[in-house]
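FAQ: What does a ligand-bound record look like?

Like this one, built around 2-acetamido-2-deoxy-beta-D-glucopyranose:
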Amino acid sequence: MKFSRCIPLLFALVQARDVVHNWEITYITTNRGLDQPPKRGVGVNNRLPLPVVEAEIGDTLVLNVYNSLDTPTTLHSHGIFQYGTNYYDGVPMVNGCPIAPGSNFTYRIPLQQSGTYWIHGHTADQNYDGLQTPLIIYDRNDPYPADGEYLFAVEDWWPINIHETLEILQEPGGLGSPFIYPPQTLINGEYGGLTKPITFEPGMTYRIRLVSMMHLPLWEFALDDHELYIIEVDGVLTKPKPVDVVRLAPAQRVSVLVKAKESVERNYQYHITVLQDYVPPIEGVFPAQFDGNVTYHPDAYTEIVDIIPSEPFDDLSIESLDYQPMFNAERSIFLNLTYGFTKDDIPAETINLISYRDPLVPTLFSAMTTQERAINPITYGPQTNTHVLRLNEEVEVLFWSPTQLPHPMHLHGHTFQVIERGYISDTTGEMRQRVPSEGFSPLMRDTVHVQQGQYVIVRFRANNPGVWNMHCHFSWHLGLGFNMLLVVGPYEIQRSIRPPQEMYDQCRIQGIGTFGNAAGHNSFNYDGAPQLPYFRAELPKIAQAIKPIAEAIIDG
Ligand SMILES: *[C@@H]1O[C@H](CO)[C@@H](O)[C@H](O)[C@H]1NC(C)=O
Ligand SMILES: *[C@@H]1O[C@H](CO)[C@@H](O)[C@H](O)[C@H]1NC(C)=O
Ligand SMILES: *[C@@H]1O[C@H](CO)[C@@H](O)[C@H](O)[C@H]1NC(C)=O
Ligand SMILES: [Cu+2]
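The answer part, i.e. the structure of the complex:
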């Protein structure tokens, strides 16, 4: 993959087609060209990074996967609604069975949205070890045409793999810290410090796509002395919003339009800054700044600025382009985002003190096969934290983050409106920010960053029959159980969702049941289902443990 690409827009009429990728998912031992020991990563066709996937709206994305790993795998197309194709959403034991080692599976995904997405592994956090890539869906009738575009996909690469990381995080008492093996930043698959120039031609308009494939830190994009206009957030077109800087949490995407200057007298710089917010300071890692040139003319003088803007992303001041007033709150769901310790003092991430565990039967199959019991959340087991929603119900979710850790919360199969943000400690409500309730089209997105000590309210219409995950997109947190399920329209699922035979074959070869409740029974009987770990009172220990280690790294 090239560091940055300039794609002339083609206005030729092309028929909807299959965009086919043949991916053998393989282990690959690499340090990604970084000053780090190599680790065993997960790549495709013995390569990392994966190729960027490009398609047009209306195309069908065909991913022919062969699993060469010694463990199951899946691919999730993040932000793609999968309307009618819930079984291709790629969460193992939720949307179906994973792809067994040594076997094939084909995802056939009709692309009904345009914009900036990404594909990533959703089994055992394989994305943490490299299995992830941008997915760009063009629209030849895009209301924001550009003369060219550039892509910046940014990820953190850790020198130990996800299993080793989770082992450290699960040390009794929460005393382990993966920060003793600090990551490096990759931009478009290469070391961030290799920032390459991008070229601007006078008078042209460029679209810059920003994709956060990070597992932990936030980052920002700025371009000196040029105005950036946000036009897309998480695949949703917005009214143009001028900003100096764009901040992205893990799993978020933003496109900006930039108008090039009329003259070639000067060159400029763009900046990708990895923030040191809620992570310990580690020299050259958190924070880190990568500057690249914006070249108008090879001989022109490059303007170097001292101050690079930095600011939070103001979801509440941006409007979606298609007018959709605030949804109602026919149902409110309160989610306390905390962590706890099991009786053995093992840290676990929780939502309402429930730490997610896979059911024995994939939840989609439970919804399909339990008749009228499918509307009862306990059918899906106590450990999946399932809420059952009526089709087209308008739902409000309050994400409450009382700890010292923020959470980028992602909902599958839908976008939600960001309605309100505030501080948990703000008992008077003075610092509350809320969108206007009339004449405003709240920003819709699929991943919202809930900052430490804050709450965020979102609303959405549950218009997509299927089983959908809602989880934190920090890979560490997801790996420690920070996950829950929404079953939307169980009767509509029973009527309309038909997984392909290939999916049933996968279940069969792995001995996974496709009938009954979370425990595979055709009644309210949960014998054999995973049980909830018991939690003793939560203490914000993890963040405290990180601090002395971080200080030692800086001093040493
Ligand atoms: C998987 O698909 C490839 C390509 O179509 C084929 O060559 C191979 O035999 C298949 N493997 C299995 C185990 O079905
Ligand atoms: C950016 O431009 C400056 C000034 O022309 C030059 O010194 C520097 O090497 C360039 N950096 C990169 C990464 O191309
Ligand atoms: C959220 O969970 C924490 C930890 O269990 C608890 O101390 C706090 O009271 C809960 N907050 C609410 C509003 O339920
Ligand atoms: Cu989290």
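Follow-up question: can I read anything off the structure? Yes, for example: The longest strand covers residues 18-30.
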